[in-house]
Amino acid sequence: MVSLRGLLKISLRHPRPTASALRASAVAPASGSPFINNSQGASAAVAELSDALGTVFDQIDLDGDLNSQINGLLERLDQEASQYGNSQLKDEQYSDWECSPEKAELISMAWHCAREAYETSSGLPNNPARNEKWKLEPGDCIVPSTDGTIKAVSFSRVSSVEKGTDNKDLPVLVVAIRGSASAVDHMVNANYEPRNADNFIDISRLAPENSTTLEAHSGFLNSAKALDKTVSQRINMYIRENASNYSHVLFTGHSAGGAVASLLFLRYLAQESLF
How confident is the model over 127-131, as a mean pLDDT? Predict the structure, then answer.
């Protein structure tokens, strides 16, 4: 078994070619392919991490007390991290929201579908679900692509158990997008550099007073663009079949799936005429 001290000595004897190679691959000519873009973005992120780890290793004295040195480095890292907080809106930037029983039911449906989206990789629809107020009928699914760009998506229709109920949010089509579940999903996640999303989301319709451009996580933006056509077709189909009622569509997803779902929601929200 190789000790920690032995591993550090090996890393010092072999300088960091990995970061250089990854950085070179990250600046290779772009082909326009989402997979190439994701792999280049992930390479750049790993190269950055490799450089940071190399800098840390350079500061370690192999003849000293490794435990105390590593603990010291962890404390410094903790101090750096403490300078950052979670992104949040100021109180004056949003209005108060009260969760009615109907909204709570809707959140429950979204949670159920987001969880079940992890079972859609096989292309088989999820199992139907039901409680005393609503029933869920699973529809077809989108199978994830091997390169991770297209994420697994499930389409479920939720309606009231009893007709004539007061829940105006039903019936609803729930579009649930799966989060990270494979190695290639994490490659998409690592392609984190912000990229202009103006050609996908018309921010001027959402915030006319704001003239700034909209940027989004590159990997998630690639996924949203890859899903756009198919998701639009499913929504159109639902609207046609549900022509006698006002059509509701709910986007949901866990983790990275929630990020992609948010981008798709903003895209459709910004369109002048929805379908």
Answer: 76
Tokens of 181: 């579940």
List CB contacts of 125: < 8 A, sequence separation 6 or more.
Answer: 138, 139, 140, 141, 154
What is the spatial distance between Cα 187 and Cα 149, in angstroms, rounded to a whole number?
10
Angle between helices 256-270 and 183-190 (to 10 degrees): 60
What pLDDT, on a 0 to 100 scale, did the predictor assign at position 222? Answer: 93
CATH architecture of 101-270: 3-Layer(aba) Sandwich (3.40)
What's the whole-model pTM score?
Answer: 0.73
DSSP assignment letter at 122:
G
Give the chain's length.
275
Chain-centroid distance of CA 248 in Å reads 23
Integer angstrom CA distances of residue 216 from 55, 192, 269: 30, 9, 16
Q: Map out the domains of the chain as residue ranges.
A: 4-83, 101-270
Residue type for position 267: R
What per-residue string of b and e applies to 38-66 under the rule 16 or more CB within 10 Å gives b? bbbbbbbbbbeebbeeeeeeeebeeeeee
